[in-house]
Amino acid sequence: MAPPEVFSLSQQTPVTCHAFNADRTQLAVSLNSSDVLIYAREGNDWKHIDTLSEHDKPVTSIDWAPQSNRIVTSAQDRNAYVWQQTPDPQTGHTVWKPTLVLLRINRAATYVRWSPNEDKFAVASGARAIAICSFDPEGDWWVSRLLKKPIRSTVLSVDWHPNNVLLAAGGVDMKARVFSAYIKDVDKRPGPSVWGEKLPFNTICGEYASPAGGWVHDVAFSPSGDVLAFASHDSSISVVYPGGPAVHVIKLSILPLVTLAWTTEESIVAAGHDCQPLVFAGNQGGWEIIGSLDDPHANKASGGSRSGFGGASPVGRLNSAAFNTFRNAAERGISNVPGSPTASSSNESELFTIHQNTITSVRPYDGVPGNVTRVSTSGVDGKLVVWDVNAVTPIGATGLAGKLGKMQLR
Amino acid sequence: MDVSFRKIDIDQYDEDALLVTELYEADPRDPAQALNDVKQKAAAVRSSLAKGDIVAALMLVLEDAPYGPHLDDAKVASLCANLHLQTLVSILNSTKSSEIPGVVKALSTDAQDTLMKYLYKGMALPGWGDVSGSVLLGWHEKLTEVAGTGCIVRAMTDRRLV
User: Mean pLDDT over residues B141-157, rounded?
Assistant: First the structure.
């Protein structure tokens, strides 16, 4: 039950995305710019050691292949690059060398992930398509095939099935789908699974709508690949058992979740606009919220005086000093103009959670698929945090209150 | 700076544009049937209210509420939606403010989401019928305390507009 490790990578700019190398000694992030920064672990801190500059619009996603040690990046400039460490012919130093990928998309690339065997990767895009890229040794480049039908809008996230063939995708058309991304020259014919038996390229193995019309922000296969989870902008998380067939929907009383990761076959860590990673657990019989990895009460217990006129504790993010400032202004005519003598200390707008803004990415950090022991999160506040997934604070104590995690079978 | 280019409807040049109607499944009932349902419910609600059973009345109204514009018969559809809102408002108005939290807690999550949609619809129609802003705000406050900001988010994202 180690406390979370907190690193402030930037004070002002958001961390768009993050990816660790295999042994977690190096870290690739983008700080809302067109550059990818490589950090190396030094004791308890991260030291900036390299910058990968090739994109000319903001980077949207990074993935670091653990076995082949290659980085793939996607950006709003509609391009993806595969970066490989090679010795520089002039200096002899090892440098990251980019290879352009021919994506053939006419909108921003939004998300990229290596397949489990690291011989393919999938690039989601705003062009209503997902590019499945594989290496063509004859041409010595990465070629892509597009998954198009029946995608109707921007794809926001993808996740690979452990069999290296199936791909889950979720997007703005409010659907989560499972596709076959079978490439003849790369893949062996996959065995039958709960998702289907014959799987030529672009087979639709499943299509699931978000419960109340929200964008599907993130999708993820369970470690076995037999279950699919997705988080959508209607503040809900859905877990799909295709064999059942059953869809478990948890409607939350808090702001939407935008990212999730499976830690075991029966538990998920998800985070988003409520600035704390939440833990969900369940099985084919049903799912429920267990608690939070963050403990807002413990963090700021000594946080000093908080302007607490309100007796009743509002829900979720409403429980912030900023909210109270406006409420005081509205109800009592007290205006705390920053800089005025009545204004309290500058940390007045601080949230009770460790992350001070939306968490945009949660990824496994430590352990093997099916038994992840630690996860890493990064977000708009410029922080990177590593959490012990077993250090769960039950929801009763986190102040989420109410009927959070009320569950139903659809 | 000239920003008029921002108002160009670029979708008209796109043969495969995504239409609003494709974003949700339409109400399966045809407008006349929906109107009939709404009228029957209004009567049932009146008898529930006469017995003072507010929870039962609210559940009646919030279950299978008509939604979405029926493009083929917009007039009936809007009549239907307005009548339903009127029925709902009659319940809201006849509830004592001290009873609201208990009533809201008794509703299912789906019903809470639908109620939130109606509260916002009511606020969007100032001076319409006997909709009173303070009553709506009172319900909104209590509903948010019970169902959280998630309920508001769902009312905003859901395209199945009431």
Answer: 94
Q: Can you name the CATH fold of B28-157?
A: 1.25.40
Burial code (b: 16+ CB inside 10 Å, e: under 16) for A90-124 equals: eeeeebbebbebebebeebbbbbbbbbbbbbbbbb
- Give B24-33 pLDDT, tens digit per residue: 887 888 878 8
Note which residues in 74-113 of chain B have CB less than 8 A from chain A: 105, 109, 113
Contact at 8 Å (CB) between A242 and A194?
A: yes
The ipTM assigned to this model is 0.87
- Determine contact: B147 vs chain A, CB below 8 A: yes
Q: Which residues in chain A touch residue B105, judged by CB atoms under 8 angstroms apart? A: 403
Residue A357 has a pLDDT of: 93
How many residue pairs from chains A and B have C-beta atoms closer than 8 A? 79
For chain B, which residues make up each domain, given as ranges? 28-157
pLDDT digits (tens, 9 = 90+) for A62-108: 999 999 999 999 999 999 999 999 998 888 889 999 999 989 999 99
Q: How far does CA A313 lie from the centroid of its chain?
A: 29
Best mutation target among A289, A315, A327, A410 (most B Cβ atoms within 10 Å) is A315
Q: Is the pLDDT of residue A137 over 70?
A: yes
Residue of A nearest to B144 (CA): A315
Interface check B29 vs A, CB under 8 A: no
| Inter-chain CB proximity A402 and B147 less than 8 Å | yes
Partner residue opposite B113 with nearest CB, options A174, A212, A312 = A212
Domains of chain A: 5-297+358-409 (2.130.10.10), 301-349 (no CATH)
Q: Is the pLDDT of residue B108 over 90?
A: yes
CA A338 to chain centre: 34
Alpha-carbon distance of A307 to B112, in angstroms, equals: 31
Q: What is the pLDDT of residue B70?
A: 59
